[in-house]
Amino acid sequence: MLSDPESHKVFMSRIPWGHAAEPRDFIGAVVYLASDAAEFVTGQILYIDGGSSAG
After folding, report:
1. Which of 5, 12, 17, 28 has the greatest count of CB atoms below 10 A from its CB?
2. Mean pLDDT, the chain, as a whole number?
3. What domain range is 21 assigned to?
């Protein structure tokens, strides 16, 4: 899908942050969820999508 220029344009237009996710975009969430700071966090969905689920 991303190799087709038109599909890539449509895909990218749906991401307000302006770029597709890269591994570095997940690091903060992983560190948080693996830390003691998240010990009371249960049953949550953490969207790491550059804002595309926000509308």
Report:
1. 12
2. 88
3. 5-54
